[in-house]
Protein backbone atom coordinates (compact mmCIF):
# COMPACT_ATOMS: atom_id res chain seq x y z
CA UNK A 1 0.00 0.00 0.00
CA UNK A 2 1.19 3.45 -0.82
CA UNK A 3 0.57 6.86 0.72
CA UNK A 4 -2.50 7.18 3.00
CA UNK A 5 -3.69 10.05 0.76
CA UNK A 6 -4.14 7.73 -2.22
CA UNK A 7 -7.46 5.92 -2.70
CA UNK A 8 -7.84 2.16 -2.29
CA UNK A 9 -10.11 -0.09 -4.34
CA UNK A 10 -11.46 -3.19 -2.58
CA UNK A 11 -13.08 -5.60 -5.04
CA UNK A 12 -15.13 -8.57 -3.92
CA UNK A 13 -15.38 -11.29 -6.54
CA UNK A 14 -18.57 -13.18 -7.27
CA UNK A 15 -21.24 -13.84 -9.86
CA UNK A 16 -24.27 -11.54 -10.21
CA UNK A 17 -27.82 -12.60 -9.50
CA UNK A 18 -29.77 -14.51 -6.83
CA UNK A 19 -28.91 -17.92 -8.32
CA UNK A 20 -25.27 -17.50 -7.22
CA UNK A 21 -25.73 -15.41 -4.08
CA UNK A 22 -24.87 -18.11 -1.52
CA UNK A 23 -22.23 -19.94 -3.62
CA UNK A 24 -18.70 -20.47 -2.35
CA UNK A 25 -17.47 -18.50 -5.38
CA UNK A 26 -19.36 -15.44 -4.08
CA UNK A 27 -17.48 -15.05 -0.81
CA UNK A 28 -15.89 -11.84 -2.12
CA UNK A 29 -19.34 -10.28 -2.51
CA UNK A 30 -20.29 -11.38 1.02
CA UNK A 31 -17.17 -9.75 2.50
CA UNK A 32 -17.60 -6.39 0.74
CA UNK A 33 -21.30 -6.45 1.68
CA UNK A 34 -20.18 -6.79 5.32
CA UNK A 35 -17.81 -3.83 4.90
CA UNK A 36 -20.64 -1.79 3.35
CA UNK A 37 -22.90 -2.66 6.29
CA UNK A 38 -20.20 -1.49 8.72
CA UNK A 39 -20.10 1.98 7.15
CA UNK A 40 -23.87 2.12 6.64
CA UNK A 41 -23.57 2.56 2.88
CA UNK A 42 -25.26 1.16 -0.19
CA UNK A 43 -23.79 0.09 -3.50
CA UNK A 44 -24.76 2.01 -6.63
CA UNK A 45 -24.33 1.09 -10.27
CA UNK A 46 -21.15 2.61 -11.69
CA UNK A 47 -20.41 3.24 -15.34
CA UNK A 48 -17.31 1.02 -15.12
CA UNK A 49 -19.45 -2.12 -14.92
CA UNK A 50 -19.44 -2.58 -11.16
CA UNK A 51 -21.58 -1.70 -8.18
CA UNK A 52 -19.56 0.75 -6.10
CA UNK A 53 -19.70 2.32 -2.65
CA UNK A 54 -17.35 5.17 -1.77
CA UNK A 55 -16.50 5.27 1.93
CA UNK A 56 -13.75 5.59 4.51
CA UNK A 57 -12.14 2.52 6.03
CA UNK A 58 -9.28 2.72 8.52
CA UNK A 59 -9.03 6.46 7.80
CA UNK A 60 -8.49 5.97 4.08
CA UNK A 61 -10.60 6.82 1.05
CA UNK A 62 -11.91 3.50 -0.24
CA UNK A 63 -14.14 2.38 -3.07
CA UNK A 64 -15.79 -0.98 -2.43
CA UNK A 65 -16.77 -2.72 -5.66
CA UNK A 66 -18.64 -5.76 -6.93
CA UNK A 67 -18.24 -6.38 -10.68
CA UNK A 68 -21.59 -6.85 -12.45
CA UNK A 69 -19.99 -9.25 -14.94
CA UNK A 70 -19.63 -12.96 -14.40
CA UNK A 71 -16.52 -14.06 -12.50
CA UNK A 72 -14.55 -15.07 -15.60
CA UNK A 73 -14.92 -11.52 -17.00
CA UNK A 74 -14.11 -9.56 -13.83
CA UNK A 75 -11.03 -7.90 -15.32
CA UNK A 76 -12.84 -5.32 -17.46
CA UNK A 77 -15.00 -3.85 -14.67
CA UNK A 78 -12.10 -3.97 -12.17
CA UNK A 79 -9.73 -2.08 -14.50
CA UNK A 80 -12.42 0.46 -15.50
CA UNK A 81 -13.24 1.14 -11.84
CA UNK A 82 -9.55 1.37 -10.89
CA UNK A 83 -8.95 3.88 -13.69
CA UNK A 84 -11.96 5.96 -12.67
CA UNK A 85 -10.72 6.23 -9.09
CA UNK A 86 -7.06 6.55 -10.18
CA UNK A 87 -6.09 3.48 -8.13
CA UNK A 88 -2.70 1.94 -8.88
CA UNK A 89 -2.40 -1.89 -8.80
CA UNK A 90 -0.55 -1.74 -5.45
CA UNK A 91 -3.68 -0.13 -3.94
CA UNK A 92 -6.05 -2.73 -5.38
CA UNK A 93 -7.31 -5.40 -2.96
CA UNK A 94 -9.20 -8.38 -4.42
CA UNK A 95 -11.22 -10.58 -2.04
CA UNK A 96 -11.80 -14.08 -3.41
CA UNK A 97 -12.42 -17.74 -2.65
CA UNK A 98 -9.39 -20.05 -2.42
CA UNK A 99 -9.60 -23.82 -2.97
CA UNK A 100 -6.09 -24.41 -1.61
CA UNK A 101 -6.94 -23.14 1.88
CA UNK A 102 -9.21 -24.96 4.35
CA UNK A 103 -12.51 -23.35 5.29
CA UNK A 104 -12.56 -20.68 6.82
CA UNK A 105 -8.87 -19.65 6.63
CA UNK A 106 -7.99 -16.09 5.65
CA UNK A 107 -4.64 -15.28 4.06
CA UNK A 108 -3.29 -12.05 2.60
CA UNK A 109 -0.66 -11.72 -0.08
CA UNK A 110 0.73 -9.54 -2.82
CA UNK A 111 0.89 -10.96 -6.33
CA UNK A 112 1.55 -14.56 -7.24
CA UNK A 113 -0.25 -16.98 -9.50
CA UNK A 114 -3.97 -17.40 -9.99
CA UNK A 115 -4.15 -21.12 -9.00
CA UNK A 116 -6.76 -21.74 -11.69
CA UNK A 117 -9.05 -18.94 -10.43
CA UNK A 118 -10.63 -17.48 -13.57
CA UNK A 119 -11.63 -14.22 -11.87
CA UNK A 120 -8.01 -13.56 -10.85
CA UNK A 121 -6.79 -14.63 -14.29
CA UNK A 122 -9.13 -12.10 -15.93
CA UNK A 123 -7.99 -9.31 -13.58
CA UNK A 124 -4.28 -10.07 -14.05
CA UNK A 125 -4.70 -10.13 -17.83
CA UNK A 126 -6.68 -6.86 -17.90
CA UNK A 127 -4.22 -5.12 -15.54
CA UNK A 128 -1.17 -6.60 -17.31
CA UNK A 129 0.23 -7.44 -13.88
CA UNK A 130 -0.27 -9.93 -11.05
CA UNK A 131 1.07 -7.45 -8.52
CA UNK A 132 -2.06 -6.52 -6.63
CA UNK A 133 -3.17 -7.45 -3.10
CA UNK A 134 -5.33 -10.50 -2.48
CA UNK A 135 -7.42 -11.48 0.52
CA UNK A 136 -7.93 -15.23 0.13
CA UNK A 137 -10.86 -16.88 1.90
CA UNK A 138 -10.39 -20.64 2.18
CA UNK A 139 -13.23 -22.80 0.91
CA UNK A 140 -11.28 -26.10 0.90
CA UNK A 141 -11.03 -28.75 -1.78
CA UNK A 142 -14.07 -30.47 -3.31
CA UNK A 143 -14.96 -33.87 -1.86
CA UNK A 144 -14.05 -37.03 -3.75
CA UNK A 145 -13.77 -36.56 -7.49
CA UNK A 146 -16.09 -33.55 -7.71
CA UNK A 147 -15.04 -31.04 -10.35
CA UNK A 148 -13.71 -27.87 -8.66
CA UNK A 149 -15.83 -25.79 -11.08
CA UNK A 150 -18.98 -27.48 -9.74
CA UNK A 151 -17.80 -27.19 -6.13
CA UNK A 152 -17.27 -23.41 -6.21
CA UNK A 153 -20.75 -22.90 -7.72
CA UNK A 154 -22.43 -24.78 -4.87
CA UNK A 155 -23.73 -23.17 -1.71
CA UNK A 156 -21.80 -23.55 1.52
CA UNK A 157 -22.68 -26.72 3.44
CA UNK A 158 -25.00 -26.61 6.45
CA UNK A 159 -22.00 -27.01 8.77
CA UNK A 160 -20.11 -24.19 7.03
CA UNK A 161 -23.16 -21.92 7.12
CA UNK A 162 -23.15 -22.12 10.93
CA UNK A 163 -19.72 -20.44 10.92
CA UNK A 164 -20.13 -18.31 7.82
CA UNK A 165 -21.26 -15.01 9.41
CA UNK A 166 -18.37 -15.06 11.90
CA UNK A 167 -15.92 -16.06 9.15
CA UNK A 168 -17.08 -13.28 6.81
CA UNK A 169 -16.76 -10.81 9.70
CA UNK A 170 -13.20 -12.06 10.36
CA UNK A 171 -12.31 -11.67 6.67
CA UNK A 172 -13.74 -8.12 6.64
CA UNK A 173 -11.53 -7.37 9.68
CA UNK A 174 -8.54 -8.59 7.65
CA UNK A 175 -9.44 -6.25 4.78
CA UNK A 176 -9.68 -3.31 7.19
CA UNK A 177 -6.31 -4.21 8.72
CA UNK A 178 -4.76 -4.43 5.25
CA UNK A 179 -6.16 -1.00 4.31
CA UNK A 180 -5.11 0.62 7.59
CA UNK A 181 -1.86 -1.11 8.57
CA UNK A 182 -0.42 -2.47 5.33
CA UNK A 183 0.37 -6.01 4.21
CA UNK A 184 3.05 -7.11 6.65
CA UNK A 185 1.25 -5.88 9.78
CA UNK A 186 -2.05 -7.37 8.59
CA UNK A 187 -0.36 -10.71 7.84
CA UNK A 188 1.16 -10.72 11.34
CA UNK A 189 -2.30 -10.20 12.81
CA UNK A 190 -4.26 -12.67 10.70
CA UNK A 191 -1.83 -15.41 9.72
CA UNK A 192 -1.09 -16.31 13.34
CA UNK A 193 -4.70 -17.52 13.84
TrEMBL record:
tRNA-binding as UniProt keyword: yes
Chief place of localization: cytoplasm
Keywords: Cytoplasm, Hydrolase, RNA-binding, tRNA-binding
GO cellular component, one term: cytoplasm
Reaction(s) catalysed (UniProt annotation): an N-acyl-L-alpha-aminoacyl-tRNA + H2O = an N-acyl-L-amino acid + a tRNA + H(+)
InterPro entries: Pept_tRNA_hydro, Pept_tRNA_hydro_CS, Pept_tRNA_hydro_sf
UniProt-annotated site: Stabilizes the basic form of H active site to accept a proton, residues: 97
UniProt site positions, description: Discriminates between blocked and unblocked aminoacyl-tRNA: 15
Function: Catalyzes the release of premature peptidyl moieties from peptidyl-tRNA molecules trapped in stalled 50S ribosomal subunits, and thus maintains levels of free tRNAs and 50S ribosomes. Hydrolyzes ribosome-free peptidyl-tRNAs (with 1 or more amino acids incorporated), which drop off the ribosome during protein synthesis, or as a result of ribosome stalling.
PANTHER family: PEPTIDYL-TRNA HYDROLASE (PTHR17224:SF1)
Family: Belongs to the PTH family.
Assembly and oligomerization: Monomer.
Entries under NCBIfam families matching the protein: pth
Name the record gives this protein: Peptidyl-tRNA hydrolase
Organism (species): Actinophytocola oryzae
Lineage of producing organism: Bacteria, Bacillati, Actinomycetota, Actinomycetes, Pseudonocardiales
Name of the gene encoding the protein in the UniProt record: pth
Amino acid sequence: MTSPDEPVLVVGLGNPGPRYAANRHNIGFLVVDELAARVGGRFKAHKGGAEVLECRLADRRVALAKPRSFMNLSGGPVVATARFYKVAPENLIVVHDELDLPFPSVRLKLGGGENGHNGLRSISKSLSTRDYLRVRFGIGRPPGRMDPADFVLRDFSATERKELAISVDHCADAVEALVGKGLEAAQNLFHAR
